[in-house]
Amino acid sequence: MAKKKDVTVEEKLRALYDLQLIDSRIDEIRNVRGELPLEVEDLEDEVAGLNTRLSNLAQDVTNLETDIANKKLAIEESKSLIKKYEEQQKKVRNNREFDSLSKEVEYQDLEVQLSEKRIKEFKAKIEQKNEVIEATKEKLAQREQHLEHKRSELNEILKETEKEEKALLKKSEEFAKSIDEHLLKAYNRIRNKVKNGLAVVSIERGASGGSFFTIPPQIQLEIAARKKITIDEHSGRILVDAALAAEEKEKIDKIFS
Fold first, then answer.
1. Annotation: CATH topology of 36-162
2. What is the spatial distance between Cα 26 and Cα 21, in angstroms, rounded to a whole number?
3. Coil, helix or strand for 167?
4. In this predicted model, what pLDDT tens digit does every residue of 93-133 receive, in sequence order?
5. Are 249 and 200 in contact (CB under 8 A)?
6. Contact present, 183 and 206 (Cβ < 8 Å)
7. What span, in angstroms and rounded, lies between the C-alpha atoms of 230 and 237?
8. CATH 1.10.287.1490 residue ranges in the chain?
9. Which of 18, 69, 77, 241 could be joined to 224 by an S-S link, Cβ 3.0–4.6 Å?
10. What is the pLDDT of residues 234-247, one digit of tens each?
11. At residue 239, what are phi and psi to the nearest 5 degrees?
């Protein structure tokens, strides 16, 4: 704990700026990836959804084919009964029996017609389902091709940057440990608040990096003296002088070159 108290303001500023340079490089790598991981995830979900739809449609067709087969069996059964009743009609002893059998024949004949009508309906449904299946297969092939392209793109970027990102994350953790907790919390709070993740910036042409607000000469002298941590009143960022920034950038570039 005693050693931490001996750390000078300049050393704290250097450590903070080093951490900023490392974290900014991680941000750059992740920006290169951009929306690709989300695009890949969305396409994977879409492909899975289309495969499920195809599976359901195929099951619908199978069910309709089973219904057709059942109706064909029902037709055969009705025709068999018609034949049986017609044979019985030849042996009847009175009109009442003949009429009763005629009604049975008529009923079975209607059953045949109804089954044939249902078969036509089922076949029409199968045709519609098959059209949807073909359109879905076409869409699926397009999406799979697009997904393969996006995955390849993402894998290429990951292959190029994964090793560097891991090394940078490790260094970020190392450098973060050298900064006292209060200062690190402030750094992370500013980083999360600002759009580009820049919590520590250097003075460029009399203004804080990325800002158009000029810093008074007296404040610039105080920043260059490195005796206290100065926060830019406009952007809320921690300020360092240009010379310190250049030195630390050179140092960090050497570490990762």
1. Helix Hairpins (1.10.287)
2. 9
3. helix
4. 899 999 999 999 999 999 999 999 999 999 999 999 999 99
5. no
6. no
7. 8
8. 36-162
9. 241
10. 888 999 999 999 99
11. -105, 140
